[in-house]
Amino acid sequence: MQHFRITQLFELSSHLRAWCVRHSRKHYGFDARPRPGASGQDRPQDLSQLNRLGDLLARAGKIGPGIALFERVARAYADDGFWAKAIAIYRKILRYDPSRSDVERQLAFLYQRSGLPITS
Hints:
Layout: H1 14-28, H2 43-59, H3 63-79, H4 83-96, H5 101-114
């Protein structure tokens, strides 16, 4: 699993960089990894922030780090039983990188597990 540090965000535009620094500092102490010992109550907010940060990175052209965050968020949602949220994040990964067969397999598993109809 690929982690990125706040120093790698300095290539982004100043506005995006300022947002990333502010949120990473506030939620992760300069490191975009989940805090050790974080309670389950604040986890959905952490996942939402990671998803948002992944969106910003992907829009800024940093597809690799953005996808790494999306994968982490999708796995966490799947592990917690939020199948629909995990499916939505995995589909987002496929929009950015359609060649990911591992993501397609994970989607098939989640669709089967959730009982949701498969959509294209």
